[in-house]
């Protein structure tokens, strides 16, 4: 796996695409002027962003296969460039950004969105190392992926998702939240303002992949439909340390999803789990409250009984898995 830092090449890619592609130039300029508002949920922060260009993503129909795949070369705008990484992925500028630097990192092959192959999470960890200024994230096919038929990660520049900073505070991890901890790493589970989340922190890259594989297998063990467990996953590197935030999901969209009175146009995914809500509708942006955010987190994340079942499986899985 390549250990090279891709920051310089990605910066150059942004420069070229901002210069040569009107959609990218317009949408990043609009994001630069986007309104931001913060909500406080006790000790957690939520940032709201008014972002009209995200309407297509928030409202996307997941079963729509009538359009050509926009992650395959034939379905992409002529202006879209790519940096090939590890002979298997293409790093591209996301033309509909939430972050002032927002990447889509798609498989070169048109294959389904799934982390079932252990190489995917190994790739994610290596990507986070290659892009140390970014948080790399993955949305499951049924909980936020805008292209569920074509495997992809995304990455957003660090510093905008409050949860990524909040989890590094030891106050968030009292003893009873520890699942496993030793001199090679830590795994914890807690509920943060409605979000039931698992957190892996280690300076050992293979160990991070093993911890994730054990959690994934544990989730499969409590899952009745036999498909990939619904999940959002965020990953970043800080010096020698690897961080993985896993948010198992119970639902894709809240009951209030939609437009009009009493409705909210948002499909919560990794970024919203990280505490950043991109809201395309002005009225949603103006009126959303901390209590509503917390209620939606509780609604779309798993309940405590499911979490306990996952933890039981996790604690009984083999601690070294063949990867
Ligand atoms: Zn495709």
Topology, element by element:
Layout: H1 7-20, H2 22-32, E1 36-41, E2 44-50, H3 55-58, E3 83-85, E4 89-93, E5 102-107, H4 118-130, E6 134-139, E7 152-157, H5 162-166, E8 178-182, E9 185-192, E10 195-202, H6 205-221, E11 231-238, E12 241-248, H7 270-273, E13 276-279, H8 282-287, H9 290-300, H10 304-316
Parallel strand pairs: 2-13
Antiparallel strand pairs: 1-2, 3-4, 4-5, 5-7, 6-7, 6-11, 8-9, 9-10, 10-12, 11-12
How would you describe this structure to a colleague?
This protein has 323 residues and is an alpha+beta fold. The chain is built from ten helices and 13 strands. It has a single domain (7-316), classed as ATP adenylyltransferase (HIT family, subunit A), CATH 3.30.428. It has helices at residues 7-20, 22-32, 55-58, 118-130, 162-166, 205-221, 270-273, 282-287, 290-300, 304-316, and strands at residues 36-41, 44-50, 83-85, 89-93, 102-107, 134-139, 152-157, 178-182, 185-192, 195-202, 231-238, 241-248, 276-279. β11 (231-238) and β12 (241-248) form a beta hairpin. The longest helix has 17 residues, at 205-221. Residues 69, 71-72, 110, 150 line the site of zinc ion (ZN).
